[in-house]
C-alpha cells in the first residue's frame, strides 16, 4: 500500500508538469465547458454548433499531440473530451444528413496514441461510438484507397 502512495504522487506531479508546460492558449481552446452546451441533440439542428465542436475537437487533438510530444503523456481529461467531441459531432453530422469528416489531426492522434484514446472512444454511448467508429473507418479506408490505387482525388 505504501508503494502506491509515491507512485500516485509521481503521477500527479507528472500531470501537473504536463499541464504547466502546455501553452495557456491551447489549454483554453480545449476547455471542458463546451461539453455542457454542445450535446449531440443540440448540434443536429445547428450547423454553427457543429462547426464550433469540430474546431474544439481539433484544438483538443492539437493539445493532446503537444502534450504527447513534450512529455510522452496526454492528460486523461483531454482524451475524454476528444472522444466526447468526436462522438457527439459525428453523430450530429450523420443525423443532420452530412458526411462527417474527422480532422486529420485526430487521425494522426489515433496513429500515435491509439492505446490511450481507443478506450475512451469505446466508452462513448452506443450511438456516438458507432457513429465515430464508422466515420473513422470510412475516412481511413478512403485514405488507404487513394494511396494504393494512385488516385489523386
Spell out the blueprint of helices and strands.
Blueprint lengths: L3 H18 L2 H6 L4 H4 L2 H5 L2 H25 L4 H20 L8 H19 L3 H24 L4
Helix pairs in contact: 5-6, 5-7, 6-7, 6-8
Structure description:
By secondary structure, this protein is an all-alpha fold. 79% of the residues lie in helices and 0% in strands. It has helices at 4-21, 24-29, 34-37, 40-44, 47-71, 76-95, 104-122, 126-149. α5 (47-71) runs antiparallel to α6 and α6 crosses α8. The longest helix has 25 residues, at 47-71. The N and C termini lie far apart (58 Å). 29% of the residues are buried.
What is the structure about, briefly put?
The chain has 153 residues and is mostly helical. It is built from 8 helices and no strands. Helix 5 (47-71) packs across helix 7, helix 6 (76-95) packs across helix 7 and helix 6 (76-95) crosses helix 8.
Notable characteristics:
153 residues, mainly alpha, 8 helices, 79% helix, 0% strand, globular
Catalogue the unreliable spans. Answer: 12-22
Q: Any idea what the radius of gyration is?
A: 17 Å
Number of helices: 8
Number of separate strands: 0
